[in-house]
Design a protein that fits this description.
This protein is α+β, with helices and mostly antiparallel strands. The protein has four helices and eight strands; from the N terminus they run E-H-H-E-E-E-E-E-E-H-E-H. A hairpin with a 2-residue loop joins strand 5 and strand 6.
Length: 174
């Protein structure tokens, strides 16, 4: 079983795909700002941060349950655990897992959804059944957590550079 919120996924991909066209439109609009290089750097760094955000929040999050393990990819952290080390939690529309050795993990993609609610409920039900079957199996393992780092994080370099450049300019000019 693999679940991701399709509406958020496709909306994020659309937002990412529109960005280059929007950037070209803004740069070719004919109006030239007084401080062209700084404004260009600001625009490009804002665009790269927005693309990074859409990838992290809309494209990458998912829950995968196969081969006796569950893997949860949230925007910043990922978790992996054997199903026998997992307890399903659902309270007031919030869904989570209690993973042995990690603690409580909120399932980003399985939260209440106005647009993808039926699929999310089905995925929650299926995950709960997988966990219940594994609980009767006996052996308990330990889960692990890691910070997600990947090629998409290169998009943060422009934004970080712009922030550092501005802070240095403020400190230099007072």
């Amino acid at each position: 079983m693999t679940y991701r919120n399709r509406v958020v996924f496709w909306a994020s991909l659309t937002g990412i795909a529109v960005q280059p066209a929007l950037l070209v439109f803004l740069l070719s609009s004919g109006e030239r700002p007084s401080d062209g290089l700084v404004d260009l750097f600001a625009l490009v760094s804002l665009t790269s941060w927005f693309a990074w955000f859409l990838v992290r929040v809309g494209v990458q999050p998912k829950v995968v349950c196969e081969d006796g393990h569950v893997v949860v990819h949230n925007p910043v952290l990922s978790f992996r655990a054997p199903l026998s080390a997992v307890e399903f939690l659902a309270v007031g529309g919030q869904v989570g897992l209690r993973i042995e050795g990690v603690g409580v993990v909120r399932l980003w993609v399985m939260s209440k959804s106005l647009f993808d609610g039926r699929r999310a409920r089905g995925a929650r039900r299926e995950l709960r059944e997988h966990i219940a079957r594994a609980a009767s199996g006996g052996s308990v393992g330990v889960g692990r957590r890691w910070v997600r780092v990947g090629p998409v994080d290169v998009l943060l370099l422009l934004t970080s550079g712009f922030v550092i450049w501005n802070v240095a300019d403020i400190l230099r000019n007072g």
